[in-house]
Fold:
Amino acid sequence: MSSFACQRLSRTFRDNRRTATLVLLCTAVSGGGYFAYGQLAPPEVVTDRKKVVVLGTGWAATSFMKNLNSPKYEVQVVSPRNYFAFTPLLPSVTCGTVEARSIVEPVRNIFRKKKVDVQFSEAECFKIDAENKKVYCQSNANNSLDGKEEFVVDYDYLIIGVGAQVNTFNTPGVVENCHFLKEVEDAQKIRRTVIDCFERANLPEVSEEEKKRILHFAIVGGGPTGVEFAASLHDFVNEDLVHLYPGIKDLVKITLLEAGNHLLSMFDKRITAFAEDKFQRDGIDVKTGSMVVKVDEKEISTKELNNGGKITSIPYGMAVWSTGIGTRPFIKDFMSQIGQASRRALATDEWLRVEGCNNVYALGDCATINQRKVMEDIGAIFKKAEKGNSGTLTVKEFQAVMNDICERYPQVELYLKNKQMRNIADLLKEAKGDVQKESIELNIEELKTALSNVDSQMKFLPATAQVASQQGTYLAKCFNRMEKCEANPEGPLRFRGEGRHRFKPFRYKHLGQFAPLGGEQTAAQLPGDWVSIGHSSQWLWYSVYASKQVSWRTRALVVSDWARRFIFGRDSSRI
Structure:
């Protein structure tokens, strides 16, 4: 076989690697050779593809795109940023522990090798028309030569994963004077401001009092973001900047303001106590019960809730606001259109479908699952389980639909677990009294009594990257199996209708959470009420955050940044 023919064959294979079924076998036997091959299979032609529009490139949207594998969809992604950012490492970016480029991955790299047709538009959605299945977008000002160009995108399915914005609670002066920590640009701006504060304080003509003000860093919010940033800033100052600015190192002060009574209130009390004790030892001033009421250019006014509501003023050089999330304006407009104006986020059902809309799904921080209550459907459950119209329900009849009930209403399983009951028979026996389980029969009123406290176990999911990522993966798998599940539904019984739901409802699986506390110490709260605090948890944090990167490129960059920091220290240059 000539070299020219081999080159042509190789080029053909490279150009058709997705659909090639070519098999090449060359063997030499007594000076001869054998050549066997199969023809290239023609590409699969998919007609009548459904148009899926994805808004956002955050955790939920990126997870959906990564896991969507069916070629039966044409996907268009619309987002004002053309990259995915690993947001849990933003506090590390603020202090030079990790570089910004190390935690971002271009979205086109994520889906370029997928067999799904994916197009990306760097633009921002400003209106959703669910009735006509259209989204209205405008390109970024930087990309438009003649101002902001607007365009309309039609869809068959709409996936809303735009996240949330910072919630200022309408506090005066926050937007004008505070830094936020939601985007990569925010982290870079904080990093530059920290260095600016040290450079300004190091100027010879600045008074001692002004130096103290400039080097006072105020952090508003005692949640995971605020605590981690305070710890990262403390390490940056005491491990790196004190050697570069020895004349002003004793003037630095870090204050953490929290309106509640404790830091990290969503964590185990052991972690909360350790964090507060460690910050006290490190010299970080923690002020709990301090609600910020106003932020001026040089002062923060707080209302001391534990001191009769007294108003105090705190001079500062840099303030970071990390107190919660709010709904984006165009999502608020959309919620008003569909009758959800009174809610704090888009309400979806357990399958992540927006209530009141067809073929519109919402994931991540912009949405909340409106879990249906058992007591709302108690009549339908009784009717579905009852056999023979006897007016009573036996344990055997109830157990026949128990799996569907637990799948449809997860609060039932949680209630049984918290009450240390082995099965539903124990719950029914408790309601009926001292009766043999096999002979228990309940009418509908007795069933209502038995299940009256079950809905107390309902909880809202936290607005975390872990929840958003799992929701994106779940929805992508549903889309991949859409046709299969239309023919053979795999979900629970429809208690208020006939048949079964197409898919199993979304279930969040909590894998644990971390709270880095500085000094190479991290608090970890893992499933099973297991709490670990210290250096070993820090290494667990390193391994988990490295493994969760979306590409080998970012994984290598993040690990190399950590290694560089251990060897050379953090980068204190202002770029």
